[in-house]
């Protein structure tokens, strides 16, 4: 991820599963060939290498100039696919002829393989040519007829690995032929495919070009009409580029199952009306964390299906600092100690564990618990014994048990006293290929992440991951994440487990001291096999950590930092820009929420200011609903990476606005956001696995990898996809969408589309939060 997750910029060949399947599960499907009336049916994008847009490169550095791409291979690896230049989004039609051509040269004589193959297992190869290159330019051309069954999911690759270090340059690349694609039509009537509360507003969005209202009615499973009416014409929805109508059937307020909305002859997915629509989803959403635990066996009695159980992944995680050359050519000396880093949660689709992202995820779960302590009408979420986890029945709230699993891991990531490491000190972003590494006393600092040293492929259950793992470097951001969450931990566990509470507080104070001593140690995108979580603006982390420490300790030194911070009492702007939205790279509003919620030495007038700011943000968020064709509290025309997480995170502010103002209409706005997540969107897609008629099926995940291999399990229910991303097209699947989608329509449910369809702890944490709040309130 990048904006709301981590940027996974490089993958190995076996990781890439893709092609381009337009649309989603549908009511109608047709097969066509791209029609191009020109004499040259070019199937590749950016063949002139105007930058690297549309291409992906693994384990190498690409530079482009004057229509040529040069790939600097410093670490060729042991397999041809260890270094790849490639492009997906290609389809081959049975019986059609194709011509691949390119020009190549290198600084030394070497070889590589040119492939056209099926994207994903079993990686069927339709063209495989060994290429010998010399220092002079040579032109190559291959023509073949695709005699096998039409395949809409193929990719072009130059596999450049397993030879010698070299600089290989490619130009004049072309794949000529008719691009075979499967085109699907989504259902015209879009609504929450799970259902609606009895007293909720019940609205559907309909794609319909009529400029006049059209008739609709709701039928029960016996075909009886319960309600009828006319649509309201919304008009052009800029977020999707569609002309849409809305149908409001809120007048139905009794328990119903298997209802269908029929509009102008088109039918919706079936839905229900009752007050239990989130009672199971909140448990499945929290179960995501248990099932992505590292270092522990995932047992059958705690999962929804037997094939979701697995042996422990990385059960004895003893690692040291990365030693060797990173992907940008920097040499790291390593360090003279190892650490036991067993435990924690796998962050996302890979097997990395990150303090910057684990921090916001842990804080979000703990904040949900703290809300029940300090909001009078809020009930305790996930009380002991309610959640299917091994710790159930131990006398401690199950939500706290789950959060503690990762809290203990983050504590282990703190560097012991007296240990020295090498780190890039100061902002060196413009010089990342030549970092200046400085040896420092790292006492109290926190390692940024632990991950595989190279990207692994699909499928790969964590217990079968044998790739060497290491910690990259400490970072100021990771250190402040620990300071904040450990301070939160200290006050929550004070009466539950005083020893653990004291351990958390001591770690938080050590981390705070270390972060102030080393305030400019930044992470960069230079370690192959893991995302960077790079962040060069840390004022929000300093404010957040100081706020949590002030609340817990009451010490004036922390309040001084809080009150003088440029983000003091900051909350999201709440408009279409998304400025200030809560995510791992902007945590200022997390500090404000804690100051507004938890009693402390903060002046009551200032505490009320924090609450007023939250209500102001919620007001701005709520205003967006009527401006958006899909009736959601979100409004950008361009959707960022992890856009779905922005919607659910906004639900936290809407809930607190309801808590602080007493106005429950904010909860209805949150419900509208969940309507979008569960199907009222232009993709007619529930973005949560296991929920709705057209649920998320193929998230980017190495264990839940059924699309890559039938022997791998389908995803567990309750996982939230990152969703539409119209800004970053850096994976091979998304690259094929660029220029062919608008905002909300830039999505494909495909395991290879990590910029669209990855699942992560920091997206599921707010899903747990908002579904719990909705199930508690039920819009009564």
Automatic annotation (TrEMBL):
Belongs to the glycosyl hydrolase 9 (cellulase E) family. Residues 186-266 form the Cellulase Ig-like domain. It catalyses: Endohydrolysis of (1->4)-beta-D-glucosidic linkages in cellulose, lichenin and cereal beta-D-glucans. The keyword Hydrolase applies. The keyword Nucleotidyltransferase does not apply. Residues 44-161 form the CBM-cenC domain. It is an enzyme of class 3 (hydrolase). Gene3D superfamilies: 1.50.10.10, Galactose-binding domain-like (2.60.120.260), Immunoglobulins (2.60.40.10). Residues 278-770 form the Glycoside hydrolase family domain. Its EC number is 3.2.1.4. It comes from the Bacteria. Keywords: Carbohydrate metabolism, Cellulose degradation, Glycosidase, Hydrolase, Polysaccharide degradation. It holds the Pfam family CBM_4_9. Signal peptide: none annotated. The active site is at residues 700, 749, 758. This is Endoglucanase.
């Amino acid at each position: 991820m990048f904006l709301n997750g981590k940027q996974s910029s490089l993958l190995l060949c076996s990781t890439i599963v893709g092609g381009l399947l337009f649309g989603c599960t549908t009511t109608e499907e047709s097969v066509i060939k791209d029609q191009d009336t020109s004499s040259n049916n070019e199937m590749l994008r950016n063949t002139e290498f105007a930058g690297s847009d549309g291409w992906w490169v693994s384990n190498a550095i690409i530079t482009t100039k004057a229509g040529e791409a040069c790939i600097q291979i410093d670490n060729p690896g042991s397999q041809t696919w260890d270094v790849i230049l490639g492009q997906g989004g290609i389809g081959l039609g049975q019986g059609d002829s194709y011509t691949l051509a390119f020009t190549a040269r290198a600084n030394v004589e070497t070889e590589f393989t040119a492939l056209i193959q099926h994207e994903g297992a079993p990686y069927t190869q339709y063209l495989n040519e060994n290429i010998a290159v010399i220092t002079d330019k040579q032109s190559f051309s291959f023509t073949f007829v695709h005699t096998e069954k039409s395949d809409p999911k193929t990719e072009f690759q130059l596999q450049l690995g397993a030879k010698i270090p070299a600089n290989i340059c490619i130009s004049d690349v072309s794949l000529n032929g008719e691009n075979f694609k499967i085109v699907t039509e989504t259902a015209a009537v879009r609504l929450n495919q799970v259902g609606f509360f009895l007293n909720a507003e019940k609205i559907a969005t309909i794609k319909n070009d009529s400029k006049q209202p059209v008739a609709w009615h709701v039928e029960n499973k016996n075909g009886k009409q319960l309600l009828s009416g006319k649509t309201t014409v919304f008009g052009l929805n800029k977020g999707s580029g569609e002309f849409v109508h809305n149908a409001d059937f809120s007048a139905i307020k009794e328990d119903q199952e298997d209802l269908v909305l029929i509009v102008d002859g088109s039918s919706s997915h079936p839905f229900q009306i009752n007050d239990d629509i989130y009672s199971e989803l909140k448990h499945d959403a929290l179960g995501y964390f248990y099932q992505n635990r590292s270092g522990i066996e995932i047992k059958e009695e705690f999962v929804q299906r037997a094939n979701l159980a697995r042996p422990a992944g990385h059960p004895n995680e003893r690692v040291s600092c990365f030693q060797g050359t990173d992907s940008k050519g920097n040499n790291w000396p390593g360090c003279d100690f190892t650490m036991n880093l067993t435990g924690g949660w796998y962050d996302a689709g890979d097997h990395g564990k990150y303090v910057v992202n684990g921090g916001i995820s842990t804080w979000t779960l703990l904040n949900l618990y703290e809300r029940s302590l300090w909001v009078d009408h809020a009930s305790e979420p996930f009380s002991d014994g309610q959640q299917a986890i091994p710790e159930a029945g131990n006398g401690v709230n199950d939500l706290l048990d789950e959060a503690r699993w990762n809290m203990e891991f983050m504590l282990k990531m703190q560097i012991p006293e007296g240990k020295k490491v090498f780190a890039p000190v100061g902002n060196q972003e413009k010089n990342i290929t030549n970092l200046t590494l400085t040896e420092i006393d790292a006492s109290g600092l926190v390692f940024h992440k632990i991950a595989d040293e190279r990207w692994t492929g699909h499928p790969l259950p964590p217990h079968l991951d044998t790739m060497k793992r290491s910690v990259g470097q400490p970072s100021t951001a990771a250190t402040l994440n620990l300071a904040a969450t450990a301070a939160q931990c200290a006050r929550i566990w004070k009466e539950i487990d005083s020893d653990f509470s004291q351990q958390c507080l001591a770690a938080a104070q050590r981390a705070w001291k270390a972060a102030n001593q080393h305030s400019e140690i930044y992470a960069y995108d230079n370690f192959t096999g893991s995302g960077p979580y790079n962040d060069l603006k840390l004022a929000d982390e300093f404010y957040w950590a100081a706020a949590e420490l002030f609340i817990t300790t009451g010490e004036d030194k922390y309040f001084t930092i809080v009150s003088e911070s440029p983000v003091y009492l900051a909350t999201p702007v709440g408009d279409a820009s998304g400025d200030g939205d809560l995510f791992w790279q902007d945590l200022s509003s997390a500090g404000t929420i804690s100051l507004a919620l938890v009693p402390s030495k903060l002046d009551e007038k200032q505490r009320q200011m924090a609450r007023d700011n939250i209500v102001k943000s919620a007001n701005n968020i709520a205003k967006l609903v009527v401006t958006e064709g899909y009736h959601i509290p979100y409004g950008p025309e361009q959707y960022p990476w992890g856009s779905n997480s922005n919607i659910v995170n906004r639900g936290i502010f809407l809930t607190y606005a309801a808590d602080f103002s007493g106005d429950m209409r904010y909860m209805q706005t949150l419900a509208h956001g969940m309507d979008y997540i569960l199907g009222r969107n232009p993709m007619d897609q529930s973005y949560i696995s296991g929920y709705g008629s057209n649920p998320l099926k193929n998230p980017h995940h190495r264990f839940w990898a059924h699309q890559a291999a039938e022997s791998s399990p389908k995803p567990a229910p309750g996982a939230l996809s990152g969703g539409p991303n119209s800004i970053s097209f850096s994976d091979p699947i998304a690259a094929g969408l660029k220029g062919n989608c608008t905002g909300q329509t830039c999505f494909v449910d495909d395991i290879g589309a990590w910029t669209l369809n990855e699942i992560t702890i920091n997206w599921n944490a707010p899903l747990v939060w908002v579904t719990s709040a909705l199930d508690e309130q039920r819009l009564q």
